[in-house]
Design a protein that fits this description.
This protein has 318 residues and is mainly α. The chain has one domain. Helices cover 58% and strands 0% of the residues. The chain has 14 helices and no strands. Helix 7 runs parallel beside helix 10, helix 8 runs antiparallel to helix 10 and helix 8 packs across helix 11.
Length: 318
C-alpha cells in the first residue's frame, strides 16, 4: 500500500526528529552514543575538556548554532516543496546504464559469481565510488567559483556542532542529490549489467552497512569542536580533527582535507593536512564575509550567495 500524500508531507516535516531513529543517518541515537563513547575511550588527557566542549551551552546557544537549527527546518520545507525525491533517481540511472551497456556489448556476460561474492564486491566498490565522488565534488565546490558561492554557506558557521553538517544552501542540496544519484546509479547499473539477477537488495544493505560503520566511528564529531585525531591511522582515515581543519579560517588550512572517510584522495590531490601539526584552538567561519556576521541572519545566509554569484558573473561574462 502506497503512502498518501498527507502522510508523506507529515513524514517530511518530521524528518529532522525521525533521523534520531534511522540507523542510516548520522544522527541515529546509536551513532550519537558511539561518538560519546569514542570521546571517553580515545581522548586521553583531553577527555574532560572534550566532554565539556561537546555539551557547552556557549556553543549550542551561539547565534551560529541557532542559525543551523533554523536552516534545517527551512531546508526541510525546500525538500518537500521544491526538490521532490523523484527529481532524479539512482534506480532510473542504473536501468539506463545497464541497458546501454547491454546494447553496446551485444548482451550481458555470464560471470557466475556467488551472491556473497557479488555483495562483497558491490559493497566495496560503492563505498570507494561514493567516498571519491564526495571528495571530488567537494574539491570542485572550492575550486569553481559558481559552486563556491553556495557552498560557502556551510563554511560560514562561527561555531560547530553536529547540526552544522546540515547548514547547507538549497542549491547545494540539489547538487548533492544529483551527485548521489549519479554515483549509485552508475555503479549499480554496471553491476546489473555484469551480474544481472545476482544483484539484490542484500548488496545495497551491504553498502549501507559500511556507511553505518562510518557513522558509528565518530562521524558526528567532524562538525564539532571536539578535538579527536586518529594518530597513526590518520594517514588512512580522516578524523574529526581533520575535518575541523577544513573549516578553519586560518589561511594555512584553506582547501585542505576535502575527503569524508579515506585520506587517499587528499593525498593524491596534495590537499592532506595532518591534525598533529595544528595548534589549537581553531577559529571557524569566513573572513570578511557577511555570511559570517555575528548576527547570523538567515535571510543573508540564503540570499547572499545569489548576490555573490551575480557579482562574479558580471566580472566574468561568458
Amino acid at each position: 500500500m502506497t503512502e498518501t500524500k498527507p502522510d508523506m508531507v507529515l513524514e517530511q516535516l518530521l524528518e529532522p526528529g525521525l533521523m534520531f531513529f534511522d540507523p542510516s543517518k548520522r544522527f541515529f541515537w546509536g551513532s550519537l552514543l558511539a561518538s560519546l563513547l569514542l570521546i571517553i575511550v580515545v581522548s586521553g588527557s583531553r577527555r574532560g575538556e572534550n566532554l565539556k566542549t561537546l555539551f557547552a551551552p556557549r556553543i549550542w546557544f551561539h547565534r551560529s548554532s541557532l542559525a543551523d537549527m533554523k536552516i534545517i527546518l527551512i531546508n526541510n520545507l525546500f525538500r518537500l516543496l521544491v526538490f521532490p525525491s523523484s527529481f532524479i533517481t539512482a534506480v532510473g540511472i542504473a536501468a539506463v546504464i545497464s541497458l546501454l551497456l547491454t546494447k553496446i556489448m551485444g548482451g550481458k556476460p555470464d560471470l557466475g559469481w556467488s551472491p556473497f561474492g557479488v555483495t562483497a564486491l558491490y559493497s566495496v566498490v560503492i563505498f570507494l565510488a561514493d567516498d571519491f565522488a564526495r571528495f571530488f565534488f567537494h574539491y570542485l565546490q572550492h575550486r569553481w567559483r559558481w559552486l563556491w558561492c553556495f557552498h560557502q554557506v556551510h563554511h560560514s558557521a562561527l561555531v560547530m556542532t553536529p547540526l552544522t553538517l546540515m547548514r547547507t544552501h538549497p542549491v547545494d542540496i540539489l547538487w548533492a542529490r544529483i551527485r548521489n544519484a549519479l554515483t549509485y546509479g552508475v555503479v549499480t547499473g554496471v553491476f546489473f549489467f555484469l551480474f544481472g539477477s545476482a544483484v539484490s537488495g542484500w548488496d545495497i544493505i551491504g553498502a549501507e552497512a559500511l556507511g553505518f560503520l562510518f557513522n558509528f566511528a565518530g562521524s558526528n564529531l567532524r562538525h564539532s569542536q571536539v578535538w579527536i585525531n586518529f594518530g597513526p591511522l590518520e594517514r588512512i582515515f580522516l578524523s574529526p580533527a581533520a575535518h575541523q581543519i577544513h573549516h578553519s579560517r586560518d589561511s594555512v588550512h584553506y582547501d585542505k582535507n576535502f575527503g569524508v572517510c579515506l585520506a587517499v584522495w587528499d593525498k593524491l590531490w596534495k590537499t592532506h593536512f595532518l591534525p598533529q601539526n595544528v595548534q589549537q584552538p581553531l577559529r571557524f567561519g569566513l573572513e570578511d564575509s557577511p555570511l559570517s556576521d555575528e548576527r547570523q541572519s538567515v535571510i543573508t545566509l540564503y540570499f547572499q550567495p545569489f548576490r555573490d554569484l551575480r557579482a562574479f558573473s558580471r566580472k566574468n561574462p561568458g
